[in-house]
């Protein structure tokens, strides 16, 4: 076996070593359509894993890597290329990535469909045909909703215009500006979806009305409208199934509910036809009663079906999908619970029937005890009801008491065992199972929701333009037209699809496969590579944030410098002083006025003291010396506290006993305090010592910042002093 083609044909007959050598990333990259080939290989590997008894885990792992290959391949599309992939000719019939998405949906590739590159195009096709204003602005969206509601109601009036626009599209005739806008509006999947939901709401209103009125043998007006709606509903489901891609219709869980609704109504309409034929009175008419039970059940299902509109929300949609999967787990528990109910009900019923035989003579006419007075079968169902209600706390054991004490004791024992199994075990298992299911699907909620959205978009993009029930008029007309003439739009779709495939094979796939091979060296990425990619993305994000912060700081500094320059130009003394440089010795000798422990910011404190010190240079010098002494005393006090804390910690850690006996000199304490093992890079101290060293480093950082603030404040003070001395040197009187 030398190629993937041979593997797809005879994969079940090949051993694991050959599979591992053939199914590689390099082999997939050599294919003309590596993504579609990856889908086929993944399905084949899953089939082999189900039937094989050797290396099952390894085959499943390889299948997961092949599935990830298609996802990772799309990661190689750069932003510049993504912006260039504009499909100006895209419509509801065909677009650049629509066929690729349809294949992924049909094959259940949820991870691939949830890729941002694919899902962005799904969202774009969802509202393709609407202007940007109607897609984003709230007021325009409200106006669009009103237009869609009015359009759905006036569909019979608008049918001639719809037919005229569709006919001109088929003929390839140029439409006017208004006709073109209306045609795009009609073909938008979002518009078709919302109009369908609105008509479904009217459908539910009819069921609500029929639930509020009594039964009658003759068909009512509400039943006639419901019949029209159901005919259109069935026609729509058939068209939807025929037009959708392979298995896409079955990927939508709501379609199963649609099938159930149609089956229930088929039962209802059959029973109603029988009741109309038989005639009679609604009184004691069981068939008529069953038919109206069906109406109520169908109304319930339609209301649940209407909740599918919540899937459009990225917040509620994932939770709704999680509830569906939880219902499947609930069904498993209910089936097991049903077996337990039947088993214990049968045992309890047998106790009563045995007691009946024990208490009744052979020639006696009575053959039942009080609990089973209605017969053995009714006794069985009665026991089952008692057991079911007891799960919900509604226990009526006094109704199950028997004549003899032995039978009562056995029934009580069986009842207690049932409560232990059902309430304590089954209910708690159900809670644990539902919690696990919810957590699992909550983790993959985004992927599940995106896949569901893609399925909805794919269905409504192919759906008939006219909504239920008016499609019972348009669908036959459409069938008659295509029976006489060919579908020109379908031919254009095929031509564009061929053009798209050529673009993928000649331009798109060669670029991204080359980047993939260069990045991963022609192999499937390992878990470490994925973590490195994720770490690289995080580092790039942090780097961008730091760069943005740096630019903001530079901009603020430029504004401050510009303001200082304007100030210096307005004051000649400042202008003269700004031309002279302050020597380093003088700037290092003088300290700034920074309130170290309790005080306000250095800028506000320094500004207040500058006003005061500017009055007398000698006072400034004295105050500088006092501040330097005060600052030195504060530093010594902090270092003494740190040494005391270090000594207390050393008493807990014997490795510090020698260090606690010696005093750290000031030169060494100002440089750094570090307890790091030089060879291994691991601290020999406890977590408390590491926290202490961290606090010392923080103090040093604050000291450095304080020294910088002092130098800046000193420059301002020096400038003020020299400005005061300039007039004195020129022989003028000093006001100081």
From TrEMBL:
Superkingdom in the source lineage: Eukaryota
Residue ranges of domain Ion transport in the record: 220-444
Composition skew (Polar residues), residue ranges: 649-659, 684-708, 716-727
Example GO molecular function: inositol 1,4,5 trisphosphate binding
Keywords, comma-separated and alphabetical: Ion channel, Ion transport, Membrane, Transmembrane, Transmembrane helix, Transport
Entry's localization field: Membrane
Basic and acidic residues composition bias: residue spans: 578-593
Stored InterPro entries: Ion_trans_dom, TRPC_channel
BP GO annotations: regulation of cytosolic calcium ion concentration
GO cellular component, one term: plasma membrane
Pfam family, one: Ion_trans
Disordered as annotated region, ranges: 570-621, 649-736
Protein name from the UniProt record: Ion transport domain-containing protein
Organism expressing this protein natively: Pocillopora meandrina
